[in-house]
Amino acid sequence: MGRKDSNDLISTHHTNGGNKDIEGVEDSEEEVQKRKAKIEVPVAMWDFDHCDPRRCSGKKLARLKLIKELRVGTRFRGVVVSPKATQVISPADRDLVSRGGLAVVECSWARLDDVPFSKIASPHERLLPYLLATNPTNYGKPWKLNCVEALAAAFYITGFNTYAETLLSHFGWAESFYQVNRPFFERYRKCTNSAEVSGAQEKIIDELERKYAESRSVKDNTGTEPIDLLVANPNHNYTTALFQELDQEEPEDVETDTDEVEHSTDSLPDSTSEEM
């Protein structure tokens, strides 16, 4: 994935009318193979079918054979990105990902209570730190990553950049994900453990809140007050988070291969415990 200026990437996201994902056209097998770099670790998801299959990034990855769908009750030995985790992912998890792979729990933010998290077995559940979504449904919103963004974020933070880019390369809107979040990724990757990533996240949120408070003290030239950008994290115990100061407006929802979830799972009948 090319490292363009983030403003150029955001502009491309808004104006690229010929994007295949936005138009809903599937990539040919030849095009998929050209872009596909082999991911040498297991990538999996529990998909609870909360989202439209035509827009679900997890289901698209499954169709491309880039992710394995797990049954409820299946034990996953690697790192699981889950909204119910208590520890933030960090570079210290690289060895766990290398040995056991990466999985996500794909479910709607609005339906977390419907997910049987107690039946999703993993000893290594992790939260994602503060990041911004760039998918068309939740563009620019903190925390609201969909499945492919969540996987890519976890790979970036643990140092598997090529794996992250392989997954993102199949979504035309995803080119901006790294650039928009690059300042955050760079700070998180300098950390050595989960506690340091949590500390870096706190500093980022404090800085953004301070900038927002300063912007409120002075009206702009039109006399209008700045937009309130404080957003509660639905997935952490922090009381507030803050939008990154993006000059671009959030685009209208576009029919695309995206979901409103960070993580997903397959809503198959409960099974006896298995191990992957």
Describe the protein's architecture and organization.
Strand 1 (43-47), helix 4 and strand 2 (68-69) form a beta-alpha-beta unit. Helices cover 33% and strands 9% of the residues. It contains 9 helices and 9 strands. The model is unreliable at 1-25 and 234-274 (pLDDT under 50). The strands form 3 sheets. The chain has a 5-stranded parallel sheet with strand order 2-1-5-4-6. It has a two-stranded parallel sheet with strand order 3-9. The longest helix has 23 residues, at 194-216. By secondary structure, it is an alpha/beta fold. The protein has a domain at 39-203. It starts with 5 loop residues before the first helix and ends with a strand. Helix 6 (147-157) packs parallel to helix 8 (176-189) and helix 8 packs across helix 9 (194-216). The protein has helices at 6-15, 20-23, 29-35, 57-63, 94-100, 147-157, 161-168, 176-189, 194-216, and strands spanning 43-47, 68-69, 74-75, 79-81, 102-106, 125-126, 230-231, 241-242, 274-275.
What does the secondary structure layout of this molecule look like, with pairings?
Blueprint: H1 6-15, H2 20-23, H3 29-35, E1 43-47, H4 57-63, E2 68-69, E3 74-75, E4 79-81, H5 94-100, E5 102-106, E6 125-126, H6 147-157, H7 161-168, H8 176-189, H9 194-216, E7 230-231, E8 241-242, E9 274-275
Parallel strand pairs: 1-2, 1-5, 3-9, 4-5, 4-6
Antiparallel strand pairs: 7-8
Helix pairs in contact: 6-7, 6-8, 8-9
Major sheet strand order: 2-1-5-4-6
Q: Kindly state the mean pLDDT as a whole number?
A: 73
Q: Which residues form runs of ≥5 with pLDDT under 50?
A: 1-25, 234-274
- How large is the radius of gyration? 18 Å
Largest sheet: 5 strands, parallel
Number of helices: 9
| Beta-strand residue fraction | 5-15%
Name the overall outline. Answer: globular
Order of helices and strands: HHHEHEEEHEEHHHHEEE
